[in-house]
Amino acid sequence: MGMPTHLSASDIEEFGREMDAIRNEIADSLGSKDRAYILSVIKWQRTLMLAGRIVIFLSFFLLPMSDWTFTGWPQFWVVLLLGAGMLGVSKSIENMELGHNIMHAQFDWMRDPNIQSNTWEWDNVCPSDQWKHSHNVVHHTWTNVHGKDPDIGYGVLRVTDDQRWHAKYLFNPVINFVLMMMFQWGVALHDLEADKLLAGQKSWKEVIPMLKRIGWKVRHQLLKDYVCWPLLGAAVTLPFTLYFGFDVINIALAAMGFTIIANLIGNGIRNIWSNVIIFCGHFPAGVHHFTKEEVEGETRAAWYVRQLLGSCNITGGKLFHILSGNLSHQIEHHLFPDIPANRYAEMSPRVQAMAARYGLPYNKGSFTRQFGTTTWNIWRLSLP
After folding, report:
1. Positive or negative CA dihedral for 48, 51, 56, 62?
2. Looking at 90-104, 237-251, 356-370, which range is the least confident one?
3. DSSP class of 228
4. Taking the model in full, what pTM does it have?
5. Contact between 296 and 62 (Cβ < 8 Å)
6. 3-state secondary structure of 205
7. Which of 59, 43, 47, 49 is nearest to 88 (CA)?
8. Model confidence over 304-342: pLDDT tens digits?
9. Which residues contact 115 (CB under 8 A, 6 or more apart)?
């Protein structure tokens, strides 16, 4: 499914003017409420992250420190997993409602030096500058255009019938699972365009500076999550173990090990949730894809039409939308990527009404529907 054929050129241009009017109206109304919203999200995200860390550290005092019997293990795991879950949710909010949206310049109008698209570095192994290129520039410009948008299957998955089948796609389900579990690493490598590198369409000379930048960010993230926090966890137990005369070395090593486990769980929650929300916004049943020929000489109005047809929404409540970074309003995000995401909910009914007037589909559905059809497509398209 490509561009609609029932709209004339003048219809498309009028559609674009109406979309511009919606965008300009919301942009002109940005102010104190939007500022208060993003500051509040930052505050609560950091509070949740700190609370999760504290709960993880508190769990160490439930360890059977004297004899390492099984007494106390159930309570310990409940508290540790609670802390890891809080950490995972905080990381999801930081990546999606904060990092993703701030790096889209949605809050640059505030002129706050701490909340700017060119200075925000998110809690992710992908350097923010490379993400902004692969996502903001490439994906949002060429959404769902074959040969232009590398987000179609991310170079490893077959997600549409328009992609020619190869034997490698038999592993679609396995690759999808691995990508979901390791999503931040896939994001980090995405801008390298490994498929072009292997095909000789891109040289190593081009990607070496990018690899060095990724290496810097990976070292920073690994040092933070798997060295500094574990050492702090061990330090927390030190006074307690010394006072009671417990085995300091074993307790410290246990605290470090369990901190690493908690961080792995927290990062895993963020990876899975980010992957699922992003896939549900791009690959469910009914999404449109386009050829390079269809977008030749494309106007801004036609770009609006393509963004509408190439994106999908997920229905849900306010908390769900915040946890998804408002990417549950993927259609509005692709139409208005630099408008603060907290305004998408009020724009959505107007966009849907416009789509109906112009006879264009507005792909929205429950989480179950969007995730189910996405997963089914990935499994189905693994076969010829």
Report:
1. negative
2. 237-251
3. I
4. 0.93
5. no
6. helix
7. 49
8. 999 999 999 999 999 999 999 999 999 999 999 999 999
9. 38, 42, 102, 107
- Measured CA to CA in angstroms, residue 351 lies from 242, 304, 356 at distances of 63, 11, 9
Q: For residue 32, how many other CB atoms are within 10 A of its CB?
A: 7
Secondary structure (DSSP) of 120-184 = ---SSSS-HHHHIIIIIIIIHHSTTBTTT-TTSGGGT---STTSPP-GGGGGHHHHHHHHHHTHH
Average pLDDT over residues 349-354: 98
CA-CA distance, 214 to 221, in Å (whole number)? 11
CA distances (Å), origin 370, targets 12, 276, 279, 353: 28, 10, 9, 21
Q: Give bridge partners of residue 145 from the DSSP assignment.
A: 290
DSSP string, 229-281: HHHHHHHHHHHHHHHHT--HHHHHHHHHHHHHHHHHHHHHHHHHHHHHHHHHT
DSSP-derived 3-state class of residue 329: strand
pLDDT at 244: 63
Closest CA to 92 of 323, 310, 315, 334: 323
How big is the chain, counted in residues?
Answer: 384
> What's the pLDDT at 61?
83
